Amino acid sequence: MIHIAFDAIYAHPLPENHRFPMLKYELIPGQLLHEGYITAANLFSPAPCTASTVLLTHDADYLGKLMHQTLSPSEQRKIGFQQSPQLTQRELIITQGTIDCCYHAIQHGVALNIAGGTHHAFANHGEGFCLLNDMAVAANFLLRNGDAGKILIIDLDVHQGNGTASLFANEPRVFTFSMHGAHNYPFHKEKSDLDIGLADGTETDAYLQQLHEALPAIIAREQPDFAFYLSGVDILETDKFGKLKVSMEGCLQRDQFVFQTLQAHRIPVCVAMGGGYSPDVKTIVEAHCNTFKTAIALYS
């Protein structure tokens, strides 16, 4: 059975000024339930991540600022959210949700977090709407516990996973792969193990060709035994900030290729949603739901 982490939104609602960027996370599970792709049995509610687990990745001073609401105004501007206890609690729950998904994926092949993919968070600061780097924390947790030996992070959000790249720059057990807009945020890129920077206006066929060339080669060379997949839908041609021209069908084909490739190599995968900023929230929800539907079709 496919497991989906979702309670980070419903059980801990955010202040009104945080709600619009998060609206899609409320709509995705409702849509999947409405269409009959999942039932309540597929959904699970994570607890908050413990401080000791967060500290496998993030600095104690930074975590203390999040917990005690002492981020400076400039630190809050860099993140893009005004600090609040609810926001910190939500991040801790999202992070634990990704960890929990890892273990469901090890058992069932795949698990998905309706939130997560906070790849702009560094060890000592957050930025780009990211406070804690959930995939990095989860990867370090797996490595610490001996539940993975070589991890592949597949980051297909339109924005480079700069925080993730920085966190694992000196960790040979984690291979970071980011395929993103070359001229998009963040404008100072960190160095992933493999970065593919795409030109503005890259269309579906060119996008998929580069992915088809890169991913199997990485797997053949690195031989990972666990993968994370950040399935951002800000690659869509409708996205306000993406600058690429990938169609809805192309985004679906991307997901199918990633899942089919990992499944063929028997590599369990934990998935998080990442970005999506099309003007019509229905477009965002459809694209994200396609990721879930693809996983359900292949792994059920």
UniProtKB/TrEMBL annotation:
GO function terms (MF aspect): histone deacetylase activity; hydrolase activity
Family per record: Belongs to the histone deacetylase family.
Location of the Histone deacetylase domain: 24-289
Sorted UniProt keywords: Hydrolase
PANTHER family reported in the protein's UniProt record: HISTONE DEACETYLASE 12, HISTONE DEACETYLASE HDAC1-RELATED
InterPro entries registered for this protein in UniProt: HDAC_classIV, HDACs, His_deacetylse_dom, His_deacetylse_dom_sf, Ureohydrolase_dom_sf
CDD domains with a match to the protein in the record: HDAC_classIV
GO biological process: epigenetic regulation of gene expression
UniProt cross-references to Gene3D superfamilies, sorted A to Z: Histone deacetylase domain (3.40.800.20)
Organism: Deminuibacter soli
Name recorded for this polypeptide: Histone deacetylase
Pfam family, one: Hist_deacetyl
